[in-house]
User: Fold this.
Amino acid sequence: MQLKSLKIFCDIVRRRSFSQAALENGISQSSASQVVHQLEEQLGVQLLDRSKRPFVLTPEGECYFDGSLQLVSKYAQLKEKVRALHDETSRRLLVASIYSVGLAHMSAFMRQFSSKHPNAQVRLEYLHPARVYEVVENGEVDLGLVSYPQQSRSLDSTSWRNEPLVMVCHPEHRLALRQTIALNDLAGEPFVAFEKDLRIRAEIDRALLAAKVEVNIDQEFDNVETMKRAIEVNEGLSILPEPTLSRELASRTLARIPLEENLQRPLGIIHRRDREFGKIGQQFIQLLRTETEFTSNGLQNKKELITQ
Assistant:
């Protein structure tokens, strides 16, 4: 039994009029009359006593009307519940990010996004790179922010930005006043490194090996924040993505020296191939890219001022 027919029947009874119910449902009066006729044939009972003007419900009709009214009402409530859930879901975005994207950088971005889209519900959590891939692939989050993004059968990626890698040390380190520095200058220096299972560690090791440079790795960490804290207490130097240093450079707790070698870390956004971004996801990615262009231009301007 189609709920549409039940609704038309209920509207006919409530309006006590075939014509008004037909108009309300966008059908002809004869079609409305045919709906009631078909219901009576299927049930094998008379629902309306048409010998009276206006018609009246038979006892069977009263029972059927009460039950139909409940079904139609529950179905309407169900549709509203589903629509409300859809609206809530479409405003929600779950994002997983690697630690080294930069806590200060992403915190500022999240505030900016919330101010532009106050109705959006965005949750950002920081995870180990392998875990970011896992939660995106399992559908636990919508987007993942990773470095050196990799695609697979189930995962696709879109580029976000390229970050220059720079040498980082304590402001009182003997190399802190250099304008630029070559990898060869790091030979034998105490080094704070990323953990071996991270892709950025492999890329830095590859660059040092190509330059035939050996450093003394004293400490290994899985995130930039901990590495910066170690360097701040003069525990060695490191090679880190420049955008992650904004807070420390502003407070002058760290010094950064550009590398003569052009080393960069690509960042990307990963997502399941069988999932669409949705409106909030598209807005999130668009603002990420816009903010990146602004940051890159601002960073370039700062470098130009420093060299003038």
In short: Residues 92-307 form a domain with the D-Maltodextrin-Binding Protein; domain 2 fold (CATH 3.40.190.290). The chain has two domains: 3-89, 92-307.
